[in-house]
Amino acid sequence: MKQDKDLFEELLQSKFKDDTIISSRDNFNQIFDAVQNKSDDKKLFYWYAIGIILLMSIGVFTLYYFKNIKTTKEKEVTTEISTPTENKNLVSKPVDSVYNKNEKEITVDTLVQPIQTNKENQIPNKVDVTTLRAEDEIIEKGVITITYTASSKYASTEKTKYNQLPDSSTIVVRKNSKVNFTATKQGFRRADINGIVFFNVKDNENQPFIIFGKHCKIQVTGNSFAIHSNTKADIMTLIQGTAKVVHNKTKQIKDLTPGESLKANNNGITTLKKAPNQFAWKTKELNYDNALVNSVIQDLGDNYDAKIILKNRDILNCRYSGTFTDDNIANILKELTTSLKLKLSKKDGIFLIEGKGCDL
Amino acid sequence: MNKQEQGKLVKACKKNDRYAMEKIYNTFMPRMLAVSLRYCKNRSDAEDIVQEAFIKVFKSIKKYKDQGTLGSWIERIVINCAIDHWHKMKKTVLVDNAELIEEREPHELNEIEQQELAKQLSTEKLRNLINDLPEQYKYVLNLYAIEGYSHKEIGKILKIKESTSRSNYTRARKKLLENMRAKGIKKY
């Protein structure tokens, strides 16, 4: 607004200052109606907005629905029944870090379709590993398979990462190992394993938990269970609870009791006298019977991430018999070196062993 | 209507109270019609402008923040409506050039002449004289001399150059002053 004033402006302003004119018509009713319409318009606007959002939601849902149907049909035509490891429609994405991002390599492989565990699709008879039919072992299309893998760098000794499965069971995947978890349509929980895995299974009578090894299948209930599965053999130790083992070829059935260990290979199932050393990180027990120091050092590295340097390579050729029931690496090495008359020292977290070696 | 009463009415209007709206309308309508008639020669158009302005007033009453008087707030809305109306109706824009303005300027008002003219010219007569001015001159004169806007502001409002507003005003003022003197009983 300007500040300066002159007489001309003053004259006009004074003349029109209180100027009023009585209107010949009363428009208030029209004005009031127009204002009310505005309020109604506002209400209508909200209703329109809600309507549009609803329509869009329905549209998105319909698109999603038809897309899924299309995908299923395509798969029926073009692909054979998929297994979690073979499926080409897998979408991989990383899941949470173990304890060091650089050392982790865990992936979740997800089928395109959502998980369905509805009761209609479950077989009416209760699933049991001993009566599991070949068709029950087929992973049907449309179920999610979650894959947990751990790289060679990932060793979970001190900072063990417990991964929770969708059914609330927990697993520990050791380095170079892999687990495919599937909630099958047949009504049981399935874990296909490769390598060393520890399970803490959430008990659910309606959905038995069956571990698929290379040579056997194991039905476990509410327990702690460690297994090492590879092409040579499946080695397992039951820590708590119960487990039923069925050999794939011989159909031999074996019930496991806590603390018991088994080995299943091409020939059948055999009971192990002592817990396998692969599970020492869990059982805290290492057993050796005239074993090479080489394998002792290997086990200590695998189970406890121990960093050990041998000054003399021939030490690896020495043999050791005995049991370690302590998970303290320093104590274990002390016991080992004392027995073999070697010298043990530690610098910057690395154990150094010196002394006279052995001939092969 | 005192400020307290105005405050109560505004509060009631915000709650969509018909009585309060009617009270405000009846109170301010005569004043707003007079304002509108300074911008619009046609009475029917002026009343339409006021009606449109009051609809805007009640629709946006929630935005009114008790700053300044309610009357001046409504008046600004009426003027804005009048300008909108003019924008819709206008066909030509007068682009005056300062250089083209005639050299011969009427002599300025002195206080005696101002008082005499104030006596001799009724508000209605003066309004008619303003309304006889070309549309754009009328708007510039009203906004500058009566509402107190600067030429920069007028330029923005009327979407013309500031210099155009300035020259329009000079011409409008000159013309109006001549007509005022012509209509006055005594001539100076």
TrEMBL record, chain A:
Question: Taking every annotated instance into account, which residue ranges of this chain make up the domain FecR protein?
Answer: 164-242
Question: Which ranges carry the Protein FecR C-terminal domain?
Answer: 286-349
In terms of Pfam families, this protein maps to: FecR, FecR_C
Which segments cross the bilayer? 45-66
Q: Which UniProt keywords apply?
A: Membrane, Transmembrane, Transmembrane helix
Name of the protein in question = FecR family protein
UniProtKB/TrEMBL annotation, chain B:
Q: Enumerate the spans annotated as RNA polymerase sigma factor 70 region 4 type domain.
A: 124-176
> What Pfam family is a match, any one?
Sigma70_r2
Q: Which InterPro entries match?
A: RNA_pol_sigma-70-like, RNA_pol_sigma-70_dom, RNA_pol_sigma70_ECF_CS, RNA_pol_sigma70_r2, RNA_pol_sigma70_r4_t2, RNA_pol_sigma_r2, RNA_pol_sigma_r3/r4-like, WH-like_DNA-bd_sf
Q: Which keywords fit this entry according to its UniProt record? A: DNA-binding, Sigma factor, Transcription, Transcription regulation
Q: Where is the RNA polymerase sigma-70 region domain?
A: 25-89
Coiled-coil annotated residue ranges, if any:
none
Keyword check for Transcription? yes
Q: Which family does it belong to?
A: Belongs to the sigma-70 factor family. ECF subfamily.
- Under what name is this protein listed? RNA polymerase sigma factor
Originating species:
Aquimarina litoralis
Taxon lineage: Bacteria, Pseudomonadati, Bacteroidota, Flavobacteriia, Flavobacteriales
